[in-house]
Design goal:
Layout: H1 2-13, E1 43-49, H2 63-70, E2 74-76, E3 79-80, H3 86-95, H4 99-102, H5 114-119, H6 127-133, E4 137-142, E5 162-166, E6 178-181, E7 187-188, H7 194-209, E8 216-221, E9 229-230, E10 233-234, H8 263-266, H9 281-314, E11 321-327, H10 347-350, E12 354-357, E13 365-367, E14 371-372, H11 376-383, H12 403-407, E15 425-430, E16 433-435, E17 448-450, E18 453-459, E19 464-470, E20 475-479, H13 498-514, H14 520-523, H15 550-553, H16 559-563, H17 633-638, E21 641-642, H18 645-652
Parallel strand pairs: 1-8, 1-11, 2-13, 3-14, 4-5, 4-8
Antiparallel strand pairs: 2-12, 5-6, 6-7, 7-21, 9-10, 11-12, 15-18, 16-17, 18-19, 19-20
Bound molecules: 2-acetamido-2-deoxy-beta-D-glucopyranose (12 copies).
Amino acid sequence: MGAAAVALLVGLLAGLLTRHASAGTSDPATGGNATTNSTSRPNIVFIMTDDQDKRLYSTDYQPVLQRELVAKGTNFTNHYTTQALCCPARSSMLRGQQTHNTNITNVVKPGGSYNKWVLSGQDTDYLPHWMNAAGYRTEYIGKVMNGYGVSNYNVTPKGWDHVDGLLEPYIDDYNVPIWSANGDKPVYYPGWHQTDVTRLKALDRLDVLTNQSDPFLLTITPFTPHVAYEQGNPSSRPIPLQRHMEQFLNATAPQTPNFNPAAAYQTQKSGWLQYLLPMNDSAVDFADFVYQSRLQALQGIDEIIEDVVAMLEAKGVVDNTYIIYTSDNGYHLGQHRVPGGKSLFYNEDTNIPFVVRGPSVPQGVVSTLPSLHLDLAPTFLSIAGLNASSAAWPPFFDGRSLLDQWQAPLVNNATGAGHGNSREALNIEYWGLVGIEAPSGPELGGSYYNNTYKTIRIVGDEQNWAYAVWCNGQTELYNISADPYELTNLARADNVSAEHQRVINRLNALLMVTKSCEQERCRDPWAQLVPDSNSSSSSSSTTDTVLYSLVQALDEAYDSFFADFETVQFDTCMQYQWADNETPFFPPLDTLDGGGLGRAWRNETVDIAASPGTRSIQTPNYYGTAAQRNATFAQMDAASRYMTEAEIAATIG
Ligand SMILES: *[C@@H]1O[C@H](CO)[C@@H](O)[C@H](O)[C@H]1NC(C)=O
Ligand SMILES: *[C@@H]1O[C@H](CO)[C@@H](O)[C@H](O)[C@H]1NC(C)=O
Ligand SMILES: *[C@@H]1O[C@H](CO)[C@@H](O)[C@H](O)[C@H]1NC(C)=O
Ligand SMILES: *[C@@H]1O[C@H](CO)[C@@H](O)[C@H](O)[C@H]1NC(C)=O
Ligand SMILES: *[C@@H]1O[C@H](CO)[C@@H](O)[C@H](O)[C@H]1NC(C)=O
Ligand SMILES: *[C@@H]1O[C@H](CO)[C@@H](O)[C@H](O)[C@H]1NC(C)=O
Ligand SMILES: *[C@@H]1O[C@H](CO)[C@@H](O)[C@H](O)[C@H]1NC(C)=O
Ligand SMILES: *[C@@H]1O[C@H](CO)[C@@H](O)[C@H](O)[C@H]1NC(C)=O
Ligand SMILES: *[C@@H]1O[C@H](CO)[C@@H](O)[C@H](O)[C@H]1NC(C)=O
Ligand SMILES: *[C@@H]1O[C@H](CO)[C@@H](O)[C@H](O)[C@H]1NC(C)=O
Ligand SMILES: *[C@@H]1O[C@H](CO)[C@@H](O)[C@H](O)[C@H]1NC(C)=O
Ligand SMILES: *[C@@H]1O[C@H](CO)[C@@H](O)[C@H](O)[C@H]1NC(C)=O
C-alpha cells in the first residue's frame, strides 16, 4: 500500500511546476510578492513525534522512515533531550535554551504549561519569529504545548505564519480530533482519526508552501505514540489507526537487560524507584500489549513521512529540503521496573531517534556525534544563512548550530564542546512529579512520586558516564561503557571506590557548572573549571589551564581542586525550580546579569492561569479506515464542523 500511495500522489502531482520553475509567480498564501531566487535557501520539514523511544527499537518497525530518511540521510545515535517531558522539551527546543533557563519545567503549573510560556513572554521571541525575520515562511501543524486547548485556543501561538494546533482536553482522544487554526474557533473532525487529520493538514500546507518561493520551515508534531484516552477511560497506550490494528500482534516489549531487574539491582536505585516491586506477569503482558499498540500507531507516522517525501519529490524540492525526524523525549516499558512512561534520566527516556536527510547530509551514515534538542534552533538559523556574529542571532542560545556536524557526521574531534564538532557533557534535569503510565496497582504503577533531580551525562569515545543527584540527596553513578543498561550504581554511599570517587568529584563540579549554565557556559562547561596553579603538579605548571574533557580532567594533578569543589544539592523536593532551594550555584547567581537562570530574557510568572477541560464530546468508535488512507484533505474538511457554543461551554466549565 505504501508504494501504491506514493505512486498515486506522484501521479496526481505529475506535471505541476516545480518550486524553482514557478518562482516569480504570486504567492497564494500571502497574496503576492514572492521573491524570485533560483539559489533559494533550503527548506526545513521538522517532524517530531511524542514519547517515541529509540532504545526499544520502535524505529525498526517503520519501513518508510528506514527507506526514505535513514537510508537517504544520517542517523545520529547520540541525540538527547535535556528534560524527558513534553512541554519542557518542546519549549527548550523552540528557544534554544536549557529548561533551567526557560523555567518551563513541567507540563502543568507552576512548573510549566502553555499559559506559563505565554506569561513569561518567551512566545514573543522564539524560533518562528527568528525564521520569519530571516525570510522564511513558518508553519506548524500538531501538538503545541501542554495546556493549549479549548479554554485558550484564541491565545494563538505567536510567530507562525500558519498554525493549526490540537486542543486539550481532546488531544489524547485519537478518535475525537479537535483543532484550532490561527486562533479560529475549535473545529471537530467527526469520523476521523487524529493521525490522519495531522497527515492531511500537513500535506495541504506543504502544497501551499511548495507553491510559493520563500524558503519555509514546516513543523509537524503528531501526538502519536503518546498514551491515550480510550472510550471513556484513561488508557495507557496510544490508539492506532483502525487499519493498522491487526499488525504486530506477536510483538513483545524488548526485555533489555534492565527490564524488570532483580532486587539486587533495583535496590541500588534512588528515590521512588528503589521501592518498586517486580512487575508480575500481568504487568509484563501489559507491556507487550502497549508495545504492539505503539508499533501499530507508528504506522500512521510512517504514512506522514511517505506522503511528505512524495510531495517534496513531486514538487521538485526534495533535494533542497532538510527533513528532520525525532521525538520530544524517549520512553521506557519495564526498564528499571517502571511499567511505562518517561521523565527519568536513563538512556531510554533521554536518548531519542534523530535522523536528518538533506543538502550535503551523507546518505546511509550512522553518526555517534552527540547533540541536543536545544541545538536545533541555532541549526535552523544557520540553515537560513545566519551565524553567531549576525545581529539577528539571539544572545541567549545555550545550544550551537549542528550544521557542520550534519554535513560531516563522521568527523569526530572527541574533545568536548568548543573543540571541534563533538560535545561531551550533556546536562539533564527534571522538576516535579512523575506518573507511571500503566493501570493502577502496586505492580502496575499509576501513582505520582517526587522526581526532581539533576544529571550530568558524559558521551564520548573513551569515557561514558551518568551522574545524578536527586532532590532527597541520593546519588547515582553509572559507567555507561561497562554498564550500558545503567544497572550498577557506583555511587552507593557504603561502597564507593577511590577511583569512582575521583570520577564523582569531576562530574559533580561539571554539574555545578551545567545545572545553571547559560550561553557559552553551557556549550563549553569544562572551560569554567580552572584549577589554580597551587593544585597542579608536574603535569601542568601554568595557571591558565583550560580543561576540555573528562579524560584530561582525571589527571591526578587536579584531585584536590575537584575534591574541594562545592557540591550539587537541594534543600528539599520541590515541584518547580526555586533558586533558593538549589544553592549553591557556580558561578553565584548574584554575580550574573539578570540573576542567571535565563531571567534576563524572560518575565516572572506569577498567577499562571489553569487550563480547564472536561470532555463534552466522546465516541465509542475507532477511525482511520483503509479507505481513509487515500482520502483527500477536501473530503476530510467537508466532514468537519465547529464545536458548538454549548460544547465549548461544557468543556471549559
Ligand atoms: C509587494 O511589492 C510592492 C512593490 O514593491 C509593495 O508596494 C507591496 O507592499 C508588496 N506587497 C506585499 C504584500 O508585500
Ligand atoms: C538568493 O539566495 C541566496 C542564498 O540565500 C542569497 O545569498 C541571495 O542574496 C538571494 N538572491 C536574491 C536575488 O534574493
Ligand atoms: C540508528 O542506528 C542505531 C545503531 O545502529 C540503531 O539502533 C537505530 O535504530 C538507528 N535509528 C533509526 C531511526 O533507524
Ligand atoms: C517583560 O515585560 C515587559 C513589561 O511588560 C515587556 O516590555 C518585556 O518585553 C517582557 N519581556 C519578555 C522577555 O517578555
Ligand atoms: C499549487 O500549484 C498547483 C499548480 O499550479 C495547483 O494545481 C495547486 O492547486 C496549487 N496548490 C495550492 C494550495 O495553491
Ligand atoms: C503470530 O504467530 C503465530 C504463530 O507463530 C502465527 O500463526 C501468526 O500468523 C502470527 N500473527 C501475526 C499477526 O503475525
Ligand atoms: C557571519 O555573518 C556575517 C553577516 O551577518 C558575515 O559577515 C560573516 O562573514 C559570517 N561569518 C561566517 C563565519 O560565515
Ligand atoms: C578538529 O576541529 C578543528 C577545529 O574545529 C578543525 O580545524 C579540524 O579540522 C578538526 N579535526 C578533524 C580531524 O576533523
Ligand atoms: C499483578 O498485580 C496486579 C496488581 O496488584 C494484580 O491485579 C494482578 O492480578 C497480578 N497478576 C498476577 C498474574 O499475579
Ligand atoms: C515530595 O517531597 C516533599 C518534600 O519532601 C514532600 O512534602 C511531598 O509529600 C512529596 N510528594 C510526594 C507525592 O511524594
Ligand atoms: C520558575 O517558575 C516558578 C513558577 O512561576 C517561580 O516561582 C520560580 O521563581 C521560577 N524560577 C526561576 C528561577 O525563575
Ligand atoms: C489507495 O490508492 C492506491 C493507489 O490508487 C490503491 O492501490 C489502494 O488500493 C488504495 N487503497 C485503498 C484502501 O483504497
